[in-house]
Amino acid sequence: MPPTMPPTRRQVNVLITGFGPFMSVVTNPSWLSVKPLHNMRLCSTTPDRTSESGEGVRIQTLQVPVHYSSVLDLVPRLHGRTPRSGTFWHDPRLDSPHGGTAGQVYPDGYPIDHPASGYDVVIHVGVGRGGSIRLESLAHKHSYDKPDTASSLAPSLSPSRRGFGEGYEEFADIEQTTINIGELVGWLKRKGLEVDQSWDAGRYVCDFIYYASLTNTTGAKVLFIHVPPVEDGPGVETCTEVIRNVAWYLATQSS
């Protein structure tokens, strides 16, 4: 049974991001899992029913290029902040218009209705190794050595170190989500959804976007979810179901 919660008395806004192509991944399973949730409204009392009213949980989605500098530019805007650094690169392979429009910055150029009060929940989804769906507990500030899909590297901090520099000096080497991952995993498993908790988001753009979001949030609950490749996991539909349930759970606890 889900936890006992008071009904949501207003619309709770959830943003979920998925990634675009990179390396040999032409169609990113994270975006395949996220896209069907765009503009879905969930009933405040259960994640299994949609709602037509203005109350409940509203989910919006967008696609992000696998590009460090774009993350530095985009993620603060998602949280209503001005970017400290970064330049957005429009990847023409992204699913238009969910990946934005060339020459425009968020929210312009996206099919997004950015809430005036900001998002209550922000969930980032990326593809990881095969096997289970994993909820990530923390993100790292340094050691981003792999090139992104545009063959660019994370900002250089020293001859041997790359990661978050200017504007992020006040933050720790490791930032952890405020969400109780153990309780969330337990709730999902009681619903028959197999997920695991993870403490290693991979030191690539997935880890990078998680750190950026955790350090730019102005109150939104932030989480990162790794889904497995299509050929080595439970399938896209199951991943979408897990993400929908996670969104509802976090939204109904943040109201």
UniProtKB/TrEMBL annotation:
Keywords: Hydrolase, Protease, Thiol protease. GO terms for molecular function: cysteine-type peptidase activity. GO terms for biological process: proteolysis. InterPro entries: Peptidase_C15-like, Peptidase_C15-like_sf. SUPFAM superfamilies: Pyrrolidone carboxyl peptidase (pyroglutamate aminopeptidase). PANTHER family: PROTEASE FAMILY C15 PYROGLUTAMYL-PEPTIDASE I-RELATED (PTHR23402), PYROGLUTAMYL-PEPTIDASE I (PTHR23402:SF1). Belongs to the peptidase C15 family. This is Peptidase C15, pyroglutamyl peptidase I-like protein.
